[in-house]
Amino acid sequence: MAFTVKLASYDDMKECARVETEAMGSYCYLEDAWHYFYNQKGGLVTVYNEDVMIGIGRFTVLFDGTGWLETLRISPQWQKQGAGKAIYKMYHQLAQEHGCPSMAMFTGVKNEVSAGLAKINGLSKAAQHRGYHLTDLSYGNVHGFKHVGWKRAVELITPMKEEYNDYMVFNRTFYHVNEENAKGFAMEGKVFEDKESGSFIVCGARFQHQVTLHIAMMGGDYEKCLDFAVNYAKAQGLEKVSCTFAIENPKLEQALIARGFVSEPSDLITMEIKF
Q1: Domains identified in the chain and CATH numbers
Q2: Three-state DSSP string of the chain
Q3: C-alpha distances in angstroms, 105 versus 108, 198, 253, 266?
Q4: Contact 4, 78 (CB under 8 A)
Q5: Is 0.70 topped by the overall pTM?
Q6: What pLDDT does 1 receive?
Q7: Beta carbons of 67 and 28 less than 8 angstroms apart
Q8: pLDDT, tens digit only, all 275 positions of the chain
Q9: Is-contact 73 45, C-beta < 8 A?
């Protein structure tokens, strides 16, 4: 079946949100993130059957120039008819246009349809991650964390590449551990250091800042880092702190469990293609 594929305009928000609601039910965030997405490098791919929008998929260029694939939604009645493949074809075109060295996406370990579509389009499993969250923000001890500049952020973050299996996660967006992303996080005010304890934390949100504080990385004294995260979340009026990390990091997992974090229902896999 032949579809028309093009990039969304700013005025397409309502139609894109309609497709997301049809595909995802109540698990929707596109309208909240619309202005953010529209001002990021990349584009929101839309698929039409004649003049009716039936699918969407976001392509975002991250700080390090890699492509990130997200928000792929197909209206239920049009699933498994080629709309997803049409979006991936455009993804590949956008990656080439932007000179991306790679592009990646995530899905649940049990989501065979999503993983299968990615595999057909050349992506393969790169990592597996586990998520935890905390809603009991009733206590958090005094901390001495302060923002750091990008040079110090690079010094703190890049040595953690192996420990974090090369990924840091904000809002289920998987960033490689490298100098460019470390600089980007610092410029957005997401990197904090407590010199007295030799600890640092990378936390915040990519979008939907009013919902959850995401911990992307911690180093040093985990308890002090978590104290800071709880206090920082409460100061912003948030009710949840989350952390998604590589399954090869049991020390971090145990620290989260000890603090009362609860695991998410299912692990996530990252799939990637390098050009």
Answers
A1: 4-100 (3.40.630.30), 130-265 (3.40.630.30)
A2: CCCEEEECCHHHHHHHHHHHHHHHCCCCCHHHHHHHHHCCCEEEEEEEECCEEEEEEEEEECCCCCEEEEEEEECHHHCCCCHHHHHHHHHHHHHHHCCCCEEEEEEECCCHHHHHHHHHCCCEEEEEEEEEEECCCCCCCCCCCEECCHHHHHHHHHHHCCCCCCEEEECCEEEECCHHHHHHHHHCCCEEEECCCCEEEEEECCCCCCCCEEEEEEECCHHHHHHHHHHHHHHCCCCCEEEEEECCCHHHHHHHHHHCCEECCCCEEEEEEEC
A3: 11, 33, 23, 16
A4: no
A5: yes
A6: 66
A7: no
A8: 689 999 999 999 999 999 999 999 988 999 999 999 999 999 999 999 999 999 999 999 999 999 999 999 999 999 999 999 999 999 999 999 999 999 999 999 999 999 999 999 999 999 999 999 999 998 777 778 999 999 999 999 999 999 999 999 999 999 999 999 999 999 999 999 999 999 999 999 999 999 999 999 999 999 999 999 999 999 999 999 999 999 999 999 999 999 999 999 999 999 999 99
A9: no
